[in-house]
Amino acid sequence: MNKKSELKWTRKHLLGIEELSAEEIRLILDGVSGFKEVLGRPIPKVPALRGRTIVNLFCEPSTRTRSSFELAAKRLSADTLNVTASSSSFVKGETLKDTARNIEAMNIDMIVMRHSCPGAPHFLSRFIKTSIVNAGDGPHEHPTQALLDVYTIKEKLGRIEGLNVSIIGDIAHSRVARSNIWALTKLGAKVTVCGPKTLMPAGIEKMGVKVTYDITEAVKGADVLNVLRIQRERQKRAFFPSIREYVRCFGITAELLRKYAKKEVVIMHPGPINRGVELSQDVADGEYSVILDQVTNGVAVRMAVLFLLNQVRTTEVE
């Protein structure tokens, strides 16, 4: 048997990409194609999680991620329950720990969790037995977004190792950037980060990336441009003079791509897009944009994650 076939998923939770090995990342990605095939069937459903109950505990607003996880669970035949901060006992002063333990007492199997506080899923994993999937913890990590991004790149370009990937935009507030950097560098890609100095975390070079403040340099030679949203809801002060100034210095336009980009550069964005800011309309909807492919692949990736975590839980129960 080869090494890949011997590797087994043993983690009870998916809390972040930083803690995963390259082999564990590949193990998740190896299972995605099978689930994507399921999504293309006339009846896109398998009974892999029949009888399981998955709770989406979202303490921050979300459309794509929550819907993607809910659909992934239903495609695996699991029962789902959506809990939001505004409709939970948080508004009455209940703690996150008590909320989760009360939910767990209803005999559920997994919690998919989004929270504005970095490390919240890690904190909760110390107090409950239920498997936890981190669906975004503040500006810290967003592991399934990174997994679907990496899968989409591999699907389009056939590999990750040796590729040049530029991540552009609000790096400081982006959980997507951090998770993508961990995943890409562990799989052998060369990563460049680009954005205003005020939106670049101090010491980010220690993550193994190249830093530039010149959009032309970031675009030249890149196989992939992963463009991030300006997260104004996380910014407590002005980090650049104006939106117009940001667009002029860091906006990705068709003219910029014609001048400096590779002819078949892959354009990505985790969404939601601020059209006309991070990406011009024609680039967002252009032939090299894979933004909708990312959304499609997100369901298959989350199916793969839920399936693997369920295997571990099933083993523990037995």
Note down, in words, how this protein is organized.
By secondary structure, the protein is an alpha/beta fold. Strands 7-6-5-8-9 form a five-stranded parallel sheet. A four-stranded parallel sheet has the order 2-1-3-4. 40% of the residues lie in helices and 14% in strands. Strand 3 (110-115), helix 5 (120-125) and strand 4 form a beta-alpha-beta unit. The relative contact order is 0.16. The mean pLDDT is 92. It is built from twelve helices and nine strands.
Q: Any low-confidence stretches, pLDDT <50, length ≥5?
A: none
From the helix content, strand content and strand pairing, which structural class follows? alpha/beta
User: Fraction of residues in helices?
Assistant: 25-40%
Largest sheet: 5 strands, parallel
How many DSSP helices? 12
Q: State the strand order across the main sheet.
A: 7-6-5-8-9
The total beta strand count reads 9
Rg, rounded, reads: 20 Å
SSE string? HHEHEHEHEHEHEEHEHHEHH
Task: Give a quick set of tags describing it.
globular; single chain; 4-stranded parallel β-sheet; 318 residues; alpha/beta; 9 strands; 14% strand; 40% helix
Short description:
This protein is α/β, with parallel strands linked by helices. It is 40% helix and 14% strand.
